[in-house]
Structure formats: structure tokens, C-alpha cells
Amino acid sequence: MDEADRASFLATFATIFETGEPAAVEVRLDGCGEGARRWFWIDMRPETSPAGAVIAVRGFCQEITDRKLALERIRFMTSHDPLTSLINRGHLLERLDQVLAEARRRRENVALLTFDIDDFKGINDLFGHSAADGVLREVAARISRQVRETDLVARVGGDEFVVVETGCEEPEIVEALARRLLRAIAEPITLADGREIAISASVGIALHPFDGMTSSALLAHSSQALHVTKKERPNSLGFYDATIQSEWQKRRVLEQDLRLALQHRELSLVYQPMICMRTTLCSGFEALLRWNSPVHGPVAPDLFIGLAESIGLMEEVGTWVLREACAEAARWSVPLTVAVNVSPIQIQQGDLAAIITDILRETGLPPSRLEIEVTESMLIRNFERAVDTLQRIKSLGVGISIDDFGTGYSSLATLRAFPFNKLKIDRSFVRDLAEESESLAIVNAVLGLGRGLRLPVVVEGVETERQADILRDCGADEIQGYLFGRPSPISTYSAITDAMRPQHRSISIQ
Ligand code: C2E
Ligand code: CA
Ligand code: CA
Question: Which of 54, 82, 130, 361 yields a CA-CA distance of 20 to 30 A from 403?
Fold first, then answer.
């Protein structure tokens, strides 16, 4: 009989003699028959003498091995991830509580490392689901090989893994483990069909007891550290730091308020003129989104647009921007164009071509007066889908500009596959235009590219006369910047949008 079971069996037996009450005990016998383990349930009842003393125990013994194994299997299934056989989130929480209690008793530290594969969605899109499953299994195996048998390894979400390392006295030791794990994950993986794939991961680390005492606090904090790391420098590690917490809370509040901003009419559009170099007339306006929150004040678009994308609000907000800008432009008496920025999310989800068709019909704006601005980053995800969507938008007669050109990493070949009408050079190249010949060389190169592809080139961020002069000499087609007008409410530009004579549209360029 198993050592511990023997003790409990004997104790139960003794208790029956003492109390005269029936009792039952479960025991495991090793090596009975075929060397397998078997479990038995022993029901014991006392037999008493006429004087009331227990003189014997009559037992009834039932084999429960099948039931026991079935239960074990169920317990395994409900506590483990079927794909990787690692423990799952629920079971991790259970085990972690025990580990933490034990660590506190021994006055030891515990490190909780949350891993996440960088751009796992991209792997899924590019290689397909079964290959992605293979990647997850391989990552699970590699992590398990790097840690001690006693450490916990769990898969807690789609591509998120948690490692719990006990008895690590120094942060340096945890850091070394994290680096070892990242290196192991980064080794090329050979897929079942022989293709090779290289992936990377990021990791956030929280330490018990410093960063939290409970399993849920530690999990939350290491996952916050992970998100910050992933955003700032993927393929690396980051420790939780209490300032993250306050940043995190601020972000949550901002997110909540952003969800209501549309209903509360806190979003608005401002417009910035674009100037045609040849005629020196205003050719149209770019619509730029503003959020003026009663609580947070004006929030930078780069910040809240990223937030809207991450909380799934961008489709709704983007559609609102399109409708608002088209309705506005339709009211102008001068048929100028309106350029609207479109987030990659709008191209990858929903049916942007259908949305634009509806909005143009609703507002009565001729398609030729609408331009949408997209960045190279929308090409990364689902190439075919992006091409298809843009092609359909273009066939409506709507113009498509590539924005922030020069900052992404599309190759010329990918660019040629897209139906663009215009290139917009990123404003970072204009900043040092006068002084630095390198920026000038880049601007010239892009202008040359534009001529080669027969695409007009817009230069944005023009702030000085000097920059405007240089750009005219280089042959830029359109320019935009504070020099000619800041992004402002459209009423500021009513002389242009509602001018009866073209010369009123002219904005002086020396
Ligand atoms: P962007 O599309 O590159 O917009 C141009 C940005 O340059 C605007 O910043 C504008 O205010 C700024 N700018 C214009 N002229 C000058 C200049 O002479 N000097 C300098 N230093 N800056 C100038 P803003 O309005 O803060 O917008 C930032 C970004 O937010 C935009 O960059 C765009 O990517 C995004 N964004 C703005 N509105 C929308 C929108 O409605 N939808 C989407 N998806 N994105 C938007
Ligand atoms: Ca833009
Ligand atoms: Ca831009």
C-alpha cells in the first residue's frame, strides 16, 4: 500500500475502535496485478460486544480504479491546454496560490514571466492556422525545456505563456532566464511541411512580493509589463514598474471616455489647406480629427487614434470622420477636394468601399472630390484584401494617396501593386530641408520616383518660406504646412471654400 495511504488507513481503523462510528477510506495499491496502480474504496463498520465495546471491524472493499482514472483524465482536460499540454489559466491561478503561500513561508521570491509571440496574427495570416498551432506547440516545448521541473509553465491565452520561477533571489537571475527563453524561442522553427519560420517574443516580469502578493495581481502586473515592452521594444523583456500602473490606469480612463466621445459630440474635424505649386491656389483640404475632452482637454490624435484602434472603436470613428468630411465638402461653393485619413483597420475590417459608396450618395459629394490617405502599414497584414479594397475604392473614382511616405518599409514592388494617385512625403524629411543636404537628397529621390510612377508628390510640414522655395525648385506638385495654414475649423477658411473668384483661393507664395 502507498505509504501515505497506509498511514491514513491505520488512523481511520484506530478511530473506529475509539469512537465506535463507521468510516471509509480510499487507498492506492501499487504493483497489484500487471504492475499497474489500482485504487480501492474501503467502507468499514464496527461490530460491538453486548457491553458496547468495539470488538471487530467489518470492511467492504470496492475497486474504483476506472472511476479514478476517468476523474484524473477529466481533471487533466479541464486543467490543461489540449494543444500544448501545458496547464491552463484556471489551473495556473490555483497552483500559483499554493506556490505563493509556500514562498512566503520560506521567505523566498517568486518571479512571474508572461510571454507573448510578436505579431502572432501575422504568422496566422501568412502561414495558416495549422502552422500557427505547430509554432505554439514548439514554443511550449522550448519553454518547458529551459525551466526546472518544479517551475510552472502555462498557456494562458492564444499566444500568451506564463512561467513561474520559484526561489530566484536576484532580479538578474530572472533576467538571465528571460533572455535564455527569448533566445530559445527565436531559434528558427521548421514547420511540418518543411518551411522554416523565425519568430520572436516579448516578456513582462513581475516579482513576488515586491510587485504584488496575490496571484491575480502578479498576473495582471506581468501582463502590463509585457504590453509596455511590446509597444516600446518588442523582442525584449521588461520588469513591472509601479509607474506603469498609473500609466495603465490613465489609459483605462482615457479609453472609457473615448468610448463616449462620439455620442457626447466631443470629436470634431479641423481642416488644413493643400496648395498646388503650379497655380499657387488652394487645391483642397486635409481633414484632421480632434478630440476635445471636457476631462482631459485636447488629446493628441496620434494618442487617441491608436487607442481607438486598440479598443475596436476605429471603424465607427473612421466612418464618422468620412461622413462628416464629405458632408462638409459638399457644402462648399468651390469644388475643392477633401482628403480623409483612413486607418489600416478600416481597410482590413468591414467593407470600406461600400461605406464610402453610401456616404458619397448620402452627401452628394462627387467621388472625384474625395481623396483617402492611407499609410504603408496597412499593407502589412492582409495584402490581397488591402489591394482589393483599394481597387474597389479607386473604381468609384475616389483618389488614394499614400501618406507618410518614406517612413514605412514597403518595397517598390509592393507599392506598384497598389492603385495610388499621390505620394505624400513624411514631414520629418522637410524639417531639416534647408540645412541638410541628406534630407534634400531624399526629397529629390521621392520626387523622382513620383515622376517615374507618374504620381504627383505632396510635401507636408512646410513651415518656412525657405523650405517652400527649395520645394518649388525641386518640382514638388503640392505643399501643405503651417506656412499656408494650420489645421483649423473650416470657418477659418470660408474665404477659400466659398470664394466666387479663383484668385481669392490664392495663398501667397513668394
Ligand atoms: P498626418 O496624416 O501625417 O497628418 C499631418 C499632421 O501634421 C497633422 O498632425 C498636422 O497637424 C501636422 N502638420 C501639418 N502641417 C504641419 C507643419 O507645418 N509642421 C508640423 N510640425 N506639423 C504639421 P495631427 O493633426 O496631430 O495628426 C497626427 C496624425 O494623426 C495624422 O498624421 C494622422 O496619421 C492621424 N490622424 C489625424 N486625423 C485622423 C483621422 O481622421 N483618421 C485617421 N485614421 N487618422 C488621423
Ligand atoms: Ca494625412
Ligand atoms: Ca502624413
Answer: 361
